[in-house]
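A reminder before we start the practical. When you read a complex entry, don't treat the lines as separate problems. The point of joint prediction is that each chain is placed relative to the others, so the output describes one connected object in space. Small molecules and nucleic acid strands, if listed, are placed in the same frame. In the example below there are two entries. Take a minute to note the order of the lines before looking further.
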Amino acid sequence: MPIKILLYFFWILPLLCGGCYISVENARKKILAQKSVENNTDSIVNQMLRTYPIVLKKYSTPSGRGTKAGFPVDYAGISANGGILIRLSQKKAAGQGTSNFLTTLDSIKFPTKKIQMIVGLFKSNKWNLTYNDIDTAGNYCFWQSVKEGQPKQCDITDRRIYYLGIFTNNAHTNSYLYAPDYYETNCCQGNLNRINFLKINTTINNLWNKTISKYN
Amino acid sequence: MHLYRANDYDEFSFGAIDSNVVTAERIILKIMELDESIFGIREFQLTDTLLFDAYFKEAADSNMRTIKIKTDPHSGFNSLVNSNVATFCQQQNCPTSSFAGGQSPTKATAIRVGTRCFTCFDFTLTIEDPFVWPPDPDFTGGGGGTGGGGSTPPNTGNCTGVSTCRPGTLIEVGRIPCGGCGPGPIVVVPPDVPTFNPYTADTVIIDPTLRTNFPCVARIIDSLTSYANMNALAQVALKEVFGINQRIHLTFIADNSLPIDEDGHTESGNLYNGDSIYATTVHLNEWMLTHSTQEYIASTIIHESIHAFIQYKYQQYLYGNIDSTQFKTLFPLYWPPRSLGQANGQYIYSMGNSPQHTAMAANMINIMKQALVSLYPNSHINELTRDSVYKAIVWGGLENTPSFSVRSDTLFIYAMTNMARDTSLHIPFNISLNGTTIGNHYQYDSHNLSLLKSCQ
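Here is the predicted structure of the whole assembly.
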């Protein structure tokens, strides 16, 4: 679906929510405080920012063997009044011997309740929006284990790297996490950056999974 | 003189290992001694839950128990006596947390080996020294032998053959058939389950999920096993993993739970101590085994095996089995790695995913490529083309390394890994990275390069 047509649907917004506005504004301030110096060149993000004060973008790729295409890419437009989820996917065109890929955009509503949960995460001062542990994922677990009196290493190879970008009109942050689910569930718990990312990731994926199972 | 056969042990009472009469445990210890001194076997898996039961009490339901000898290799049974020499481990369900690799078993230590978890504790054998073997028992059925003192009478007399065997009473490694009393040769039956068997030095286990559905994986691994050029690091690694070093125990499994874009991964694995067997599991994505070229699958197996090798060496370093100089020699660009801190007087380094890929990218590309050339000479294309394509294929998985980012042929590498990974691709095809199309490729696909199709 062309992006222009899609954007018409963005204007259908739910009723206003005063408390949500404050939360979204707080989130914007936090993003501004931790912003990256890089320019945002993602055209979908820029289109969405015309309607939504905050846009999240996430995707993942294998850190080891595997294709690095990075699809699907998920976008979440967030405002005090509601939001939208957009998924950019790449599928091979049907037909013997064809190698053409079709890039498709799908969208679903982002329920206000879920948005409130996500903007609520920004309340914590300890959440580092530019967290990057691609090279050092095991370090947190090592130091946690030192605190607990039993130093141990906890590493795993060739799992996925997750990207989370958080965008406003003036600033954006980039975060990269290596195997956050493995480290949080199998290795050591309590890394707020991983926890918050996993909450966002799970929330968005569940909403898509629900939609897919409903229509498939 | 009396000949004790391995499966005769349960003719005697089960009980203490320091008994002054023959017990089942004493016979098993004697067999362990022979296995250790002759074959160098230092780890034993028990399937009879009655054996050493007093020492495994805490989890009586366990169905998997191991005994590991902790003395110096081949030092003989006398060194087992009166010293802290054995570690008993038994399997238990893995909890979701608090188990991790890299731990040495101490008293009641929880450890993880691959997907299995064990509780281990050291044990001091207190058999008298010198070890005095009691007189042969009375085989007429009249009593417990001259040792007496708590040993129940051996259940001898008429042999009733196989039907007398209780399930799970066999020692898994080189097991002896049931019911074999009386004259005749001892026949060693190989295990019928895919467990590590030092008698046949099967250091690589190919899971039935692979052997049944993807037979060519077995052929690839066999080919790698016979491939050798000891002058190069990765070849040493491959040789150690696939053939020579019996202390690396790799299990390959087909995994259908992995996302389509992920080829596989290697579990962190574990050593009980620096001298023991390193066991880990390599997961291979079924999608890849079905859709990729054999060259690509072989390259993935090599990549994952090198992860296993690096982890093995690092754990050996942690246990003090090799020193930092040896480690540095193996992985020069690893050194000095990022130090996480000190624990128990030893530096702990960050040796995770990223530094391992850095080492591979910096040191091993040509060597991995040579392994592919050896496996798939491919006479249909000229050497120059073949070498550049194979080199690109082995770069797969190393795209996040500093060595990759400075290359000028990254688009070619992405194209070659994509086409080798997906045999349905035909030129021209586009190349995407992180959700964005970055280019198109018009020259090569797996068909015009005559690469071999999938592993089914």
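Discuss with your neighbour: The two ends of chain A are 19 Å apart (CA to CA). What might explain this?
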